[in-house]
Amino acid sequence: MRGFKRIAAALLAVLLLAGCSGKTNDAQSADPSESAPEQAVQFTDALGYEVELTSWDRVVSLYGSFAEAWTLAGGTLVGTTSDAVEERGLALGEEVAIIGSVKSPALEEVLAAAPDFVILSADTAAQVELHDALVDAGAPHAYYRVDTFEDYLEMMEQFCALTGREDLYEKNALEVERQIEGVRALTAGEEQPSVLLLRAYATGVKAKGADQLAGAILADLGADNLVERYQSLLEELSMEEILAADPDVILIVTMGDEAEALAYLEANFESNPAWAGLTAVKNDRVEVLPKELFHYKPNARWGESYAYLAKILYPDLAGQID
User: Fold this and answer.
1) Fewest beta carbons less than 10 Å away: which of 65, 110, 246, 309?
2) Can you tell me the distance from the alpha carbon of 272 to that of 282, in angstroms, rounded to the nearest whole number?
3) Pairwise CA distance, residues 88 & 77, whole Å
4) What is the pTM (predicted TM-score) of this model?
């Protein structure tokens, strides 16, 4: 993803001049009998594969987050995975095929949609394994990885360059960046609270660092994530380790069924009498974070994610954070 910024900036200039924005701007004056010259776009994706696109009218996304990002850039879809509807609530027309799930994409259905561009997740093994089959089928495709806001910004820069929608790059990326910069500026130099970030699910709880979305934001906002000082928390979470760390704030992100995840946390940790003695518990600073901002990729809501965490970390500034 890191190489896309330079490429996307060049694409934006070239494609706008070539009239690609005419796909989404009916007001553009042009002779309808003259089609824009075909532009071959080349870049390197998140897995190091060289990608060449000549069209992106029939797009399939095998990850709901990336499907949403493509539509935020003004693109349209012919197919996507079930999480786009079930988790992200995208309002897709009947003409958009639901093609399996993120972890079980249906290759035959992907190819049946006759895509000219397939968007895949670089972090999903079942999708990585599709590469050779897609190459053999002649289906242009690219792998993406979005772990931080900067990754999202670069993805949107490229997507909006392809669609010719510089206005949507301003709205759904640069405006979000300005919101985040405001939060960073406001919290800079503040006393850093210590934080224990937990990911809970029906059968377990793990401490997380900057490899989790909320953890990356915590690091950016200057919080002291205790896993950086207590590496053993990452290996095996125990009540003894939590007591030794004694965080100022405990943040919880759930996976799967939230009620089941919180029930496991309560049964295995919160029911321990020692839990009530933790600084975060005594000061009522234990928070369950909303999935839409901290489990799923927030896309155009990254600014909300930053603001939400900043208000928890620095409550004295909460009234000044937008």
Assistant:
1) 246
2) 14
3) 15
4) 0.86
